[in-house]
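Standup notes
- DV: blocked on the single-chain target, sequence here:
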Amino acid sequence: MAKVVSGIIAGFVFGILDVLLMVPIPINDKPIAMLASFINRFAIGFFIATINIPLPSWIKGLLIGLLLSLPDAIITKTYVPIIGVGAIGGLIIGFIIK
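- DV (later): unblocked, structure below
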């Protein structure tokens, strides 16, 4: 149960931070983009905390952050910011959640 709670907290915090980063950016259909971004970042935090992969936690975080960020980056053709934030956020969550 502790892993699930940690995952919910990590995902919620990462999702909120990413949505706050999007506030000044001009985007068509901003509410939908922010919701999609929140859900993606929430999933990253949740999966890092709950999935058991036999890797160091920081590598697990980096890998999950990259893999879950790739589809959004490909669809929007905005690779560096989406993949970068996903990878860095995943790495940080991986370090925090051991």
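- Follow-up: The first helix runs from residue 2 to 22.
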